[in-house]
Amino acid sequence: MARLVVVSNRLADPRKAAAGGLAVALGEALNQSGGLWFGWSGEVVEDAARAPDDGLQVQPAGRVTLATVDLTKSDHDAYYLGYSNRVLWPVFHYRLDLADFDAGFLSGYRRVNKMFARHLMELLRPDDIVWIHDYHLIPLADELRALGSRHRIGFFLHIPLPPPLVLAALPGHEWLIRALFAYDVVGFQSQADVSHFERFVMNEAGAEKLASDRFRCYDRSVVARAFPIGIDVDEFQRLGQMREAREMYETMREQYSRRELLVGIDRLDYSKGLPQRLRAFRNLLQDYPDTRDRATLIQIASPTREDVRAYTTIRRELEGLCGHINGNYGEIDWMPVRYINRTLPRRKLPGLCRASRVALVTPLRDGMNLVAKEYVAAQDPADPGVLVLSRFAGAAEQMREALLVNPYDTQGTARAIHQALKMPLEERQRRHAALLAGIRAQDVHWWRRSFLAALGDEVSAPSEESYEPAEEAR
Ligand code: GDG
Fold it and tell me: Within 6 Å (CB) of ligand 1, which residues are found?
């Protein structure tokens, strides 16, 4: 069996349960092949203290080898905070208004990808299969090819790919798209993303369509397909049986026995539509008086990327909205919104989900959204809660039995929340059974196997095609 090499910006020790479904699933595949996981250590060192080997550390974690490098402060600022999170993240989530097109960011992004490629190349064996993850590392295969790599290399984009005209607003977008052609397989979360890729390469880059999912451009061909990511349903349900989750469930049921609980669990990110969600909740209280003194929203907003300005702005906006709703609608013994700006321990999440009658998963744009799937996995099939899901989450392509909403339409969303709160048991069971069957059939193991099968099936290995690095297009 060929060795699997996974590359991602950050890595997690797959032996630790707290790492979550993705790390567990990738860890499983890495374990089977005695694989290597390469990425940033999470350490930032002063520029003057840059080590000649970039702090490369290679250490075993069971059968898996973890290899990490450190980033200098200026690389971290330009590559991670800059190009990844102030350019690619907003643009790929259709938020051109929040992008900061600073030329220094792009050079830092390229520099770090080159540095990753240099260290990785040293660690690679000739028959390794390489699977690169996410927007931080789009040009990595191109950099590896420039160093002579002929490996099978796949890429999975965890966030959305925007429509061609949004992508076209990004300075240097041709270079990024061209860099995707250094891969053998490029995976997206949804059919919508694939169609954006197809329209872009066909109309803007003059690609030729060789098969339903194969495109030729820049003297290279690439397979582009949707591989919607799933969760580890069994792992999440096992977590739900454990003490901490059960205690959480009991406490919530007891404390809110007279109320109806709604839950939102998100990173505090502007893509998650939190202000719109709170406004929809306010509309609910306003338009449906039967929900007053009853419906309680617990919103967990775990802190993230706090050194990027757009994140402090949204945090302030949310605090204002929560204060406003609680001030206007709260009673001495009832607080409509419980807003928690901390990360809840993972072991408690299934209990919180199970105790909640409704989940609000209403991003403005999301690659997939795993919380939607976790909520379904955590429910009691005999008395399940209802998922209110944004049609703009990748998950909406698969989870058709959720109540799909337009998060910008806060009145429409309030109507759907009310419908969810009033939904008869039989309908809740029917919808839940269908959703659970879907997330089970396409779980994270299915996702990993399908992607690796596609990469393994790639017979037109890079060695058969001439490869010209994207250098001159830069
Ligand atoms: C990216 C894409 C895509 C959240 N709050 C807490 C917490 N979480 C956990 C959830 C879930 C994960 O974090 C979030 O996953 P999402 O899918 O919702 O979103 P992103 O972080 O934006 O992830 C996304 C994903 O990649 C995978 O491809 O689905 O579209 O944006 O597992 O449960 N976990 C804990 N405490 C919290 O407070 N422990």
Answer: 20, 158-159, 229, 265, 267, 300, 302, 343-346, 349, 366-371, 374
The contacts of residue 156 (CB under 8 Å, 6+ apart) are 131, 132, 133, 134, 186, 187, 188, 227, 229, 451
Q: What span, in angstroms and rounded, lies between the C-alpha atoms of 231 and 440? A: 8
Nearest CA to ligand 1 atom 35: 346
E-assigned strand segments in 149-207: 152-156, 185-188
Answer for the pair 413, 388: CB distance below 8 angstroms, yes or no: yes
What are the chain's domains?
Answer: 4-230+445-459 (3.40.50.2000), 233-441 (3.40.50.2000)
The residue type at 132: I
Over residues 450-463, the mean pLDDT reads 68
- Per cent of the chain over pLDDT 70 is 94
Q: How many residues does this entry show for the chain?
A: 474
pLDDT tens sequence across 175-195: 999 999 999 999 999 999 999
Is the pLDDT assigned to residue 330 strictly greater than 70?
yes
Instruction: Kindly report, residue by residue over 364-398, the tens digit of the pLDDT.
Output: 999 999 999 999 999 999 999 999 999 999 999 99
- For residue 90, the CA-to-ligand 1 centroid distance in Å is 17
204-261 tens-digit pLDDT: 999 999 999 999 999 999 999 999 999 999 999 999 999 999 999 999 999 998 899 9
Coil, strand, or helix at residue 278? Answer: helix
Q: Which of 51, 67, 47 is nearest to 59 (CA)?
A: 67
CA 304 to ligand 1: nearest atom? 21
Ligand 1 probe mutation, 85, 94, 161, 267, most atoms within 8 A of CB: 267
Task: Inform me whether the pLDDT recorded for 19 exceeds 80.
Answer: no
Are 318 and 339 contacting, i.e. CB atoms less than 8 angstroms apart?
yes
User: Which H or E run includes 444?
Assistant: helix 444-457
| pTM score above 0.85 | yes
Can you tell me the distance from the alpha carbon of 3 to that of 131, in angstroms, rounded to the nearest whole number?
A: 11
Question: Would you state the structure tokens that stand for residue 180, as one six-digit string?
Answer: 């995707």
Contacts of 419 (CB under 8 A, 6+ apart): 403
